[in-house]
Amino acid sequence: MSVLDNFETWKDFLGDRLNQAENQGLSREELSDLAFEIGDYLAKQVDAENPEEAVLRDLWEVANNDERHAIANMMIKLVENENTH
């Protein structure tokens, strides 16, 4: 089973990677840049495995660069919020 098969599993995976990156001392800006690169790769190279990923891909495709950074930052916030509850 791929982490992309289920959106909850995907968020858990992202949360784990975010914690690892923070523990390694990555700054907020570096995390944001990394999230942007991951989002860009997924939108261009990976087929959506569920409806949530399809929506994110569609939003990414119509967004400009600033909006894509905003989407990446919102994904960081989403997984951070999941980890605090």
The portion of residues assigned to helices is over 70%
Instruction: Output the number of helix runs.
Output: 4
Main sheet, how many strands, which sense, barrel?
none
| Number of extended strands | 0
What is the structural class?
mainly alpha
Mean pLDDT: 87
Overview in brief:
InterPro entries: DUF3243, Uncharacterised_YmfJ, YmfJ/YflH_sf. With 85 residues, the chain is mainly α.
Structure description:
By secondary structure, the chain is an all-alpha fold. The protein has a single domain (7-84), classed as Protein of unknown function DUF3243 (Cytochrome Bc1 Complex, Chain D, domain 2). Helices cover 79% and strands 0% of the residues. The chain has four helices and no strands. It is globular and about 30 Å long. The termini are far apart.
Keywords for this entry:
globular, Cytochrome Bc1 Complex, Chain D, domain 2, 85 residues, 4 helices, mainly alpha
Secondary-structure map:
Layout: H1 7-23, H2 28-45, H3 51-62, H4 65-84
Helix pairs in contact: 1-4, 2-3, 2-4
